[in-house]
Amino acid sequence: MALDFSIIPGIIPALLVGTRMTIGLAVIAVAIGLVIGSFAGIARVGANRAARVITSVYVDFIRGTPLLVQLFLVYFGLPTLIGRPVPPFIAAIAAMGINSGAYIAEIVRAGIQSVDRGQMEAARSLGLTYSQSMRYIIFPQALRRIIPPLGNEFIAMLKDSSLVSVIALEELLRKGQVVITRTFRPFEVYMVVALIYLAMTLAISRLVSWSERRLRVVD
């Protein structure tokens, strides 16, 4: 069967709808992950042993299991515990947010540990508590170091969002599958889907590289 790229203009609007869903999922998931990961990352280097153990178990479990399995746990497994179905969108952002949080926790932990220990000692010698030292001295310095890795985490989550197509949430990949059922042109459609993913990841990669250079100049 010969390739027919004349269908591309007609399928772009549908794929752009899926693209908006993909970007929205990634943004919300990373935002949730940033909140979870910030607390978990700080807890992992904190003085509270119980908090360190709990966050370590969370990070190890999430990073050691596939996102697809976590998605199935939320979408198919959780309803058996709560007695009601979980909407696909809620299941998607919950699983992706929790997954992102574990990776961001490691980013935050590494960022905090990259700050010279003398900074904490100096802050404590000035009379600041541990929490105040983390809030006003350590974390602001660590934040500048973790911005580039956070950009890479967003790129990874953007691509991993394609997994939610298995629960019929119409992000970019799922929209492509729907279009294929109408056009019967899988190669052409999947090629356009791949190019849209490529365009998004390249744009974000350039933004991350630019921010990294700016932060390096400030340092």
Brief summary:
The chain is an all-alpha fold and 219 residues long. Helix content is 82%, strand content 0%. The protein contains eight helices and no strands.
Task: Provide the succession of SSEs.
Answer: HHHHHHHH
Structural class by SSE content: mainly alpha
What is the CATH homologous superfamily assignment?
A: MetI-like
Q: Any idea what the radius of gyration is?
A: 21 Å
CATH topology: MetI-like fold
CATH architecture: Orthogonal Bundle
The description of the largest β-sheet is: none
Q: What is the C-level CATH assignment?
A: Mainly Alpha
- Helix count, DSSP H or I runs of 4 or more residues: 8
User: What do the pLDDT scores average to?
Assistant: 92
Residue share in helix: over 70%
Whole-number tally of structural domains: 1
Number of strands: 0
Outline type: flat
Distance N terminus to C terminus?
A: 57 Å
What share of the residues does DSSP label as strand, in percent? under 5%
Unreliable parts: none
Can you describe what's shown?
By secondary structure, the chain is mainly alpha-helical. The protein has one domain (10-218): MetI-like fold (Orthogonal Bundle). It has helices spanning 8-44, 49-63, 67-82, 88-114, 117-125, 130-160, 172-183, 186-218. α2 crosses α4 and α7 packs antiparallel against α8 (186-218).
Structural descriptors:
MetI-like fold, 219 residues, mainly alpha
What secondary-structure arrangement, pairings included, does this model have?
Layout: H1 8-44, H2 49-63, H3 67-82, H4 88-114, H5 117-125, H6 130-160, H7 172-183, H8 186-218
